[in-house]
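ok trying again, last paste got cut off:
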Amino acid sequence: MAHCLELLNGLGAPWRMDALFAAILVLATASGKAVSAAFSPGKSWERILFFLVAPAISIETWRRSRAISVHDLGRLTLVAIATFLPLAVFYAYLRPLISRPEVPWLIRSYLCIVPYLLFTTAIGTTAQILFASFGVHVQALHERPWLSRSVAEFWGRRWNCIVGDWLRQVCFNPFRRRPRTAILLAFTASGIVHECLLNLPLFFGYGVGVVGSMAFYFAIQTVGVFVERAWFRRSPLLGRAFSWCVVLLPAPMVLNEGVLRLFQFVG
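nice, full thing came through this time. structure:
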């Protein structure tokens, strides 16, 4: 451990942050897959195959994969064009503008909400294209999150479905008779993982201490789900407005300096 820390200290800030992020990502992914396999019945060979090659952390996601169709290829092509082209425009023209020192980090965060959606969609699309070359169709990372009508729908069905499947399997299913506990557990797990994956690398890379911001963001999401279920069931329009306020207004807590630097959204 001491030797690893010494090696990290010898790297420059960007490389130090990237190396720590990559190490934690690999560890978190492997741990998540192991837990998913342990929570699910199945044959040993299926679990091993899932652990080694599946582009998912829940075995339930992997089990839904199927042979790819012509329709799948057409839709995947359209998504790739609609994702990679605007992302290229962002990096070529908009990134230099928001990287100017006079632009506050808060403004940068809000300006990067759409690029963050495009970037994460590009990651999921790349995985889909890779497996499509072997004739396998795997689930998209996002399912049109802009159509969400509630905080619960955004996080439960449309944003980062790969992680959502894992949270559903590990956090929701064992506590299905206690939904409030399941929701609290899922958002707590999300907060902890984001803290370790993104805020810790920023601290050790640049010495910027924003530890706790992501956990607080997901605490806000937890309260948002409880509030919308109590107050907005009969007001769909107000409920949708409330949900987007809950998701987007505190977005800089998640799209902080660490995320913007890690994904090269700023220079």
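cool. The beta strands are 66-67, 136-137. Residues 70-98 form the longest helix (29 residues).
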